[in-house]
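Thread: Modeling a multi-component assembly for a lab meeting

Hi all, long-time lurker, first post. My supervisor asked me to bring a structural picture of a complex we are working on to next week's group meeting, and I have zero experience with this. I have the sequence lines for every component (480 residues in total). Could someone generate the structure of the whole assembly? Inputs are pasted exactly as I received them:
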Amino acid sequence: MNHVDPELRDQLAAEYALGTLSGSARHDFERLLSSDRNLRNLVEDWERRLNPLAESAPAVDPPAHVWDEIDRRIAIAPAPPRVREDWLDRLWDSIGFWRGAAALTTATAAALVLYVLFHSQSVAPDQIAGLDQRLARIEDATRGLASRVEAVATRPTHVAVLLDKDQRPMMTADLDTADGRLVLRLNLTPPRDFTTNVLEVWLVSPDGTRRSLGVFPSERPGTTTALVLPHNTAEALAKAALAVSLEPRGGSMTGQPSGPVLFTGALMPVAL
Amino acid sequence: MSVFKARLWQSSGDTMVSRVDRPAVANAGRTRSREALLQACAGGDRTALHSLYKETAPQLFGLALRILRTRELAEEIVQDSFVLVWRNAHTFDPSRGAAMAWLGRIVRNRCIDVIRQRGRETPLDPAAIESWADPVPSPADLAALSSDARRLHHCLEELEESPRKVLKLVYYEGMTYEEVAVHLGVPLGTVKSWVRRSLIRLRGCLEQ
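Re: Modeling a multi-component assembly
Sure thing. I ran the full set together rather than chain by chain. Output:
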């Protein structure tokens, strides 16, 4: 759309910011946004011009439970990022787990086993089912440890390993549908420009609809973050997949992934 | 420049609170600016988020409710937005606009996404819209606004009445051109050209 008259570009950006583009026009414009930095800037300029109107919106007090739910969801502060230069060091740290050195849940362990297997043997995602037995044996071996860990960590009901296009395990996810807690851990930093971009995490439903779960706090390997999802979102996620896309600072402005999707993985139930 | 009309917000429900009832929101008793509160959130200060919520949630909820017209959905959007605010506070840049515009952008974009993707769960109610379609802040309200918002209102006042009304219907109700055309009983092309010309004039005025 670069060849298009600059005035028309600005007009469309304004109308997108206002929200008047609808149906296919809005969808088409979002596709253009994903690859056109200048167009994103035009939209942002218009949002900045128009959104001071929000200050004059008529005030309506939200019911008390709205804050209670926000407070619940932010209650679990993100764990401090652990920074290591070489991911192999971390892997060895994780292997230290087998000697009982690290406090991890069995499901995290399961995700790490998948991580090792994916890395060393390039196991395709469709072979995941075949790993069940091996996981079961590992879980047997670590049962004692896991029960000690339970006092400090919740027990995930689902796990995911998010793979990039080269099948590298970029991120692991633990979901506990009982309390809605989702713990995400970034294993490797994607080779992208993070001076102007961030990683954004998406819930991808089986019907293809995508919903943002937020911007991941850092691109540093080892960063772990926990978020608490509303009950129905956690239930939906259990049957869905996670995707991580590269977005401009602050996250996608469109409510949909606007940059490339870097890695994805479906949630799998953990039968503990 | 035309004189600002001193007109109060119309209430269409008993929970609706006039801005005039809460001048304290912007003036007295504010120990930390909203911008400072957002920056404190970025540092992990949960009480700062709560303070910011208490100051801004009524208007953000009001905005979401106007657009969505479904309480439950508006509550959900406000919840999601504040969780998003908490997690993205570090990306807020006060040199690029006031905190309320940043918060408004998050809430409004999510609302627009919802009604454009799923359609409206609750149809537009012309009577309710008419009761407040062209809200003009009173001088007391204006004093409580950020300088960006005051300039925007000043520039809106320079537009003719109908185009200004259309812009406000679009912003505060999330209406499409088609919905505006039906609501006002004017041709679709007229609505489009009003909006387009108004936007160009607004930009010119804001950049003066």
